[in-house]
Every structure is written in structure tokens, then in C-alpha cells.
Design goal:
2 copies of one chain form a homodimer. The first copy, chain A, has 405 residues and is α/β, with parallel strands linked by helices. The first copy, chain A, has 2 domains: 27-43 and 289-396, Aspartate Aminotransferase, domain 1, CATH 3.90.1150.10; 45-286, Aspartate Aminotransferase, domain 2. Chain A contains 10 helices and 15 strands. In chain A, strand 5 (146-147) and strand 6 form a beta hairpin. The longest helix of chain A has 41 residues, at 274-314. Chain A is globular and about 60 Å long. The N and C termini of chain A lie far apart (69 Å). Chains A and B meet through helix 1, helix 3, helix 6, helix 7 and helix 8 of A and helix 1, helix 3, helix 6, helix 7 and helix 8 of B.
Chain lengths: 405, 405
């Protein structure tokens, strides 16, 4: 078979296929403030094994089955109970689809709603993974300006009306309303009510991404957007990634039945991992509530450590969010500062990882002077060292002026 | 908010979205010959827990990380070594993407290759899950007639040429060459070579689905199609589902880099479950080889039990495959017999599950007189009882004539 030319795949790819993704692993910093990892030392490893052992003794032979694509029913039951207790969402286990994290449900929702060019309304800066998914389906992303209570209602309505005037009424409004990623604010109750009324008025579904809601360090819970709507306008996703571990790859969605049925039809890979679902179900049923209390204390200390270190090392050269929960600070440097260009250098030289604001920008270009810093993974001591190293690196690279200069 | 109408999602779904999928669980029979479940009693539950415990002690904190989307690197390394040893496929861990079963990689490949209406060439009866995926992307499926050595070369070339003449050259040739699902044959070496030459001649990639290759009860291994090509025309998928358990949701693909990069870009849900990958990696490294020997003996006995029971209860009223491996018999009843109509009744009355041939038909309609019977899940005793019950049920329903009648 010598002489045959290699197959030219570029000739074969679908018109709708996105560009390729780089293979192999990216470098991480010791001071890894880049990705939203939770605390590694408090993952309940022994308890997950105990839960798994119990489940395997009871129903281990069911690993031989292909579970229904909605996923392990007892864990869906647990999720339904948790949603009722914590978020005022009253659904049954049959109204839940488990997915690989919340990313897969978001992917499924995007896939069933979006034709190329369809409008999706999002916060001006929001979770980059979801933006990537929307872009993969060639959405026309339209960002809405936010203040410390969430999307500005007038700005939101103007964006929706503009899209309608353009002949492309929005297919979806996506929001991370609680401890917003990356901006850190929590949408106020009034804004949530206004958002629901706007969605109802214009007939646009809302996708509420509530991944961080359990990680509250101060203040009081705000009702879910879902609970403020009684008309099937809200799709809801959340995850065990931030309260147990991302490596468990377990998230979920609930939504009106027509949406669930369509979403299930595009889910790839069948049911979520039963092995992991066994462990998380047994563990969560007995111990998740107290575990959340424990990690909230751990993460509060880390947040405070990062806030103090920012004050010490950045002082008046930057402003940053004061989040009541979640895993990030959103740090704005003076206009003209450029954290995009310095990122690789600072990772290589100072061993500090961060993500630039542009990663989270609906327009893909704003936010060159903004950084998202995740405080979830490192120890408080590492956070103090890492923020100091970051400030040094930014000054060395000329992104920040010398302190006191 | 009373008075607001429920949101009409049907107005919002993408033109490309498939129809919805039913929520809730389907009934299974006690004599479940319907789905390709492996043996439930030989799943190495204790060994998987031991492996998991070892992995968590060594690197449990890494559950806090979002793994690279290709999946847990040591398991990819194991897969690369297994492919070299068993299938003559020499690739690195970076050439592997782990997926949720092999179904997710197949979904990814379909997604990056297929625009609506694109031609995919398949065996005339082949794995229904893959057909569903191709149909979800609105493929034009064209079946190729097979004998006991696989696709008939002349028929295959005629189908390819017809597609080219129709202005729709095939995007893909999909095959399950070893212990074909559902037909049971294994493609001969000569046919594999002919297939590779045809793929090269017409510039069409082959998707080789090798999910059953480890389950050989008689006869000798046949080289992988991948190993017969040196020109990047073959994409390869396989899985741990049949040799460990489907509930572990771990399969994999390898392919030329351009295809891997595109496939990774459409993978939903991030990396496969790290928790399950930890367990499978540690277990498989030490014990998979001997475990396969053990389950081959178990499944051989089940195959033989089903073959004997078929002889006893169906005799000359049917013909069936004599598979050297895999998990199925492919049972043809006389022309005019209709196992589709009788299926629900036999499940309800006789507690026997099977799948009709139509589920596996490229044309979606052929095979009303054919059943696929999986012998993997039930005990030999249950197989004997179940085949007797199936024969009784088919006779009662008038699908088969009374024995001796």
C-alpha cells in the first residue's frame, strides 16, 4: 500500500464542525489561580470509597447494565430532594438528567436550541466554557452590561429588543446568577424577578447556571430564578464539581419536559458514569450537607487570604470584587494595562497562573486589563505567596507601575 | 405572574435538533436477551475498589482538577500499550481520546464529519446505537450486503460508486469487523485488506468499531483493519464496557491527528470520569489480561448453552449464527415471520427480551423476521429456560408454527 497518499481529512469535515482543539496537556502554575479547582485536601476520599463499597455490595452487578440515559435514578432522586430543600425547585427524579459535570447539560441545551447565527444573550463577562459551547454552535453572542446586582434591566431589554429588530429573537438568556463567574456578584432578588418577567414578556428561556450556590461565605441565600417562574421559562443546571470534586464529573439539569426530551436525544455517551454516581449518591445522602459546611469554612479563609494579599500587593493599583461566595476574584487593572500579553511569561517565570478577562468576554476582546483569580485550590499560604509573586511579575513586565512610583 | 402562557419550546428548537427521547425507564425481562450486557457476576468489584483505593492514596487530590479533555493520561498510556500488544496499532497516549464508552467517540466522529444528507456506508445490519447517532446527524445510510466474512467487496464498491455518482461521496465506512454486532461473523483478513484498498482508492475513512475483539471463544485473531493501513484512512474505537463493565463508561478512540483534534473540539462534558478512570487504570494494569481469560470461559459456556437451547427449541424453524466470539446470536425465522409485532407481548407474558432485526437495519425496515439474542447477561440455566420460553411465546403468538406441525 505504499504510494497511497494520506487521507486529507480537511476535505471531509462537516461545514458545521468547529476548528480542532490542541492535544496534550497545558502547563499549570504552582500558584494556580487560573482554573476553578476546589480545595484538593478536603475531598472526602475515604468517604467516597466507603459509599462506593456499600453501593457495590448492594447493586454492584448493575454495573453490567446500560443505565437509562438520564442516569442513576437514586442520584436523580437525591438531586430532586436537594433542589426542593435548597432552591425551591419542586421536580421529580424523572425531571432530572445527570450529565458529565454541568458542562454536558449546557452543551445539550445549546445543541437543541441553536442554529448557526442564533442569538444568545449573556452577561458581558461570563463562564468561558459556556461561551465556548455557544460559539461551537455558532451563536451570535450578545453581552449585557452588569453592575453589582447583575445584568442591568434596561440594558438587557435593549439587547433583547435589538435582537428582535434584527430578525433574530434570542433563543436563550444565559446567566450565572449566584457568585457570578467571573464577576463575583450575586443577582439581587429584584433583578431576578425582573429577568423572569422579561423572559416571559418576550418568550425567551433563561438558562440558570447555579454551580456555585452552595459556596456562600457571607450573607443570605437568594431564591433561584427557576423558583420565581411558574411558566416553564427557566432551565436549570448545577453540579457536584465544586462541592465534591470535578473529577467525579457529575452535574445535572432540570427543565420543562419538551426540553428534557430533546436534550436527552442529543446526549452523547449514554448515562453518566454509574460507578461514580454510586459513590456520590451514597456519600451525598448522608454527608454532603455537613461536608458543604466544612468546605465553606475552608474557602472563606482562602477568599479572605486573597483579599488581604490583594490589598497588600496591589493596593490602589487595582480594584477587585468582594464576593460573598464562589471561587474567584475579578481584578481590574488600570485601563491600558494588558494581562493577556504577560500571561505566558508570568506563568513561566513566576509560576503563577491566571486567566485574562478576554477569556470571559461575550465579545471575545474586552477585558485585557482584567484578571480572574481563583482562590479555591491553593492554601492560604500559597495564596499569599502567589499574589505577591503575581504583583512582582506584573510590575516586572510593565503591566503595573512600580509600587509607590 | 399568573396569566403568562407556558413557553412553547417547539417554536425554539434548532432545525437540526432531533426528535425528543422518552424519559423514564424501560422494562427489562428476566430473560434479558435484548441488550448487550456482559456477565454481571464476574465484574471485579473488589479489585476495582482496591485499584481505586490505591489511586486515591497516590493522587486522589487530583480529583480537584479538571483533567485534560483527552482523559486520564495513565489510562491512555495503558490503552496505547494494549493496542500495540493486541491489535498491532502503534500510537502514543497523546493519540488516544477517552470517551464515555465507545458511543461518545462514535458520536464525536459523526459530529465532525456529517452534514445533513451526507452518505455513510454501513453493514446492512449493524449496531443500532451507531445507526441512531448517524441518523441524529441526518446521514444518508447505505447498507452493504454481507456474507459470513463481512461486506461483499463488489457490493461495497457498488455502493460507494453509486454514492459518488449521486454527487455524495461517502464520508465514512462504518464496520464492526470482529464478532459483528448483530450478525456475529468476523471479517476475514482478505476482506479487511480489500476494504482498506477500497478506502484508499476512493479516499473514504473507515471507522473500525472493535468493541468485542477480546471476547474470542474459538479460532484465531484477525489483524485489525487499522494495522493493515499505513495511510491514515482508519479511525478506531473500542471500549472497556464488555471486558469490565458498561457502568464504568470508558471507551476510547484513536485516529490521525487532524481527526483527533476535531473530535476533541466537539466532545461534551470535558474529560471522562477521573474517579472511574483511576479504578480501571490500576485494575487493568495488573489484572485485565487474566480477567479477560476468565470471562471468555464464562461467556463461551453461555454461548454454547444458547446454541444448544436454540437447537432444542427452534430446530429447523430458524437459522442462526455460530459466532466465534462476542455476545449475540442472530436468529433468522422464516420469511413472513414478524418478531416486531410480538415483542412487547412476549416481554410482558414470557418475560423474555429480544431486539428485532429492524433495530439494526441500515434501511430501518428490513429484518422483521430476525432477532438478536444476547447471551452475555443471563446464566446458562436462565438461557435454557429463556430460549424455551421464547420459543413457546413465538408459537403462541403465531410467529412460529407449532413445533412438529
Amino acid at each position: 500500500m505504499t504510494g497511497t497518499a494520506p487521507l486529507d481529512f480537511d476535505r471531509l469535515f462537516a461545514r458545521s464542525a468547529p476548528a480542532g482543539r490542541t492535544l496534550g496537556t497545558a502547563r499549570r502554575g504552582t500558584y494556580d489561580f487560573a482554573v476553578a479547582y476546589p480545595d484538593p485536601t478536603s475531598i472526602p476520599l475515604d468517604e467516597l470509597i466507603d459509599g462506593l463499597r456499600e453501593a457495590l455490595a448492594e447493586e454492584g452487578e448493575d454495573l453490567a447494565l446500560y443505565a437509562h440515559a438520564q442516569g442513576y435514578a437514586p442520584l436523580r432522586e437525591f438531586v430532586a430532594n436537594k433542589l426542593a430543600r435548597d432552591r425551591g425547585i419542586y421536580v421529580t427524579a424523572d425531571d432530572i438528567i445527570l450529565g458529565d459535570g454541568s458542562g454536558q447539560p449546557i452543551h445539550m441545551i445549546a445543541e437543541v436550541l441553536l442554529d448557526p447565527g442564533d442569538t444568545v444573550v449573556v452577561e458581558d463577562f461570563v463562564y468561558s466554557g459556556t461561551l465556548s459551547t455557544f460559539r461551537r454552535f455558532q451563536a451570535d453572542l450578545r453581552g449585557v452590561a452588569c453592575d453589582n446586582e447583575g445584568m442591568l434591566p434596561d440594558a438587557l431589554e435593549a439587547v433583547v429588543r435589538q435582537a428582535i429588530n434584527d430578525g433574530k429573537p434570542p433563543k436563550l438568556i444565559y446567566t450565572v446568577p449566584t457568585f457570578q463567574n467571573p464577576q463575583g456578584w450575586t443577582m439581587s432578588l429584584e433583578r431576578r424577578k425582573a429577568l423572569v418577567m422579561l423572559a416571559q414578556k418576550y418568550g425567551v428561556p433563561i438558562l440558570e447556571d447555579d454551580c456555585y450556590v452552595d459556596l456562600r461565605y457571607d450573607g443570605n441565600d437568594v431564591p433561584s430564578i427557576y423558583s420565581l417562574d411558574g411558566t416553564g421559562h427557566v432551565l436549570y443546571v448545577a453540579s457536584f464539581s465544586k462541592i465534591i470534586a470535578p473529577g467525579m464529573r457529575l452535574g445535572y439539569m432540570t427543565a420543562p419536559r419538551p426540553m428534557l426530551e430533546r436534550a436527552l436525544a442529543v446526549k452523547s455517551g449514554g448515562a453518566v458514569n454509574t460507578f461514580a454516581a454510586f459513590a456520590v449518591h451514597r456519600y451525598a445522602t448522608g454527608q454532603l450537607h455537613s461536608h458543604i459546611e466544612e468546605i465553606v469554612d475552608i474557602q472563606r479563609e482562602k477568599r479572605d487570604a486573597m483579599l488581604e494579599a490583594m490589598e497588600e500587593h496591589f493596593g490602589e493599583q487595582a480594584t477587585w470584587s468582594q464576593p460573598q461566595g464562589g471561587l474567584y476574584l475579578w481584578v481590574k487593572l488600570p485601563p491600558g494595562a494588558d494581562v493577556v500579553a504577560a500571561r505566558d511569561k508570568i506563568l513561566a517565570t513566576d509560576d503563577v497562573g491566571y486567566l485574562p478577562g478576554t477569556n470571559f468576554a461575550a465579545d471575545g476582546v474586552s477585558g485585557r486589563n482584567i484578571m480572574r483569580l481563583c482562590f479555591g485550590y491553593c492554601t492560604p499560604e500559597q495564596i499569599r505567596e502567589g499574589i505577591a509573586a503575581l504583583a512582582r511579575g506584573l510590575r516586572r513586565e510593565g503591566v503595573l507601575a512600580e509600587a509607590g512610583g
